[in-house]
Amino acid sequence: MAEHPESPKPRVDASMVTTAFTLDGYRIVRNLGMVRGIIVRSRSVFGTIGAGLQTLVGGDITILSELCEQTREHAYERMMEHAKEMGANAIIGVRYDATDVMQHVTEVLCYGTAVVVELV
User: Using CA atoms, how far apart are residues 11 and 39, in angstroms rounded to an integer?
Assistant: First the structure.
């Protein structure tokens, strides 16, 4: 007897991810629990030197801004993958948190509640 492949888990569309606890036009039919994406990053010696030089000029420290944005994006993607594995089609209550683990090393956490929603 042939095995049936496991049905693919739905991917959470970015439009179904919100910091709110509801999605307009949708009803939550199942709460799957918390999902998270964690990444720990350090600055390279070159990045630290470059950022130090940029502070002399003032304004946006683009090297660190880009590192922060990339780190948040990676944490977000990991959270999305976790939600997909749980079978969610939406994530509500999304938040970010950051903690210094050690000098020049930061943990960034993106978390929320994975849910299954349907149109009202």
Answer: 21
The CATH superfamily assigned to 14-119 is Hypothetical protein apc22750. Chain B (3.30.110.70)
Greatest alpha-carbon span in the chain: 71
For 47-73, write each residue's pLDDT tens digit. Answer: 555 555 556 566 666 777 888 899 999
**Contact (Cβ atoms closer than 8 angstroms) between residue 118 and residue 29:** yes
The region, left, alpha or beta by phi > 0 then psi within -120 to 50, assigned to residue 93 is left
Report yes or no: 31 and 92 within 8 Å, Cβ to Cβ.
Answer: no
Sole residue written with tokens 């090393």: 105
**Structure-block tokens of residue 61:** 């420290």
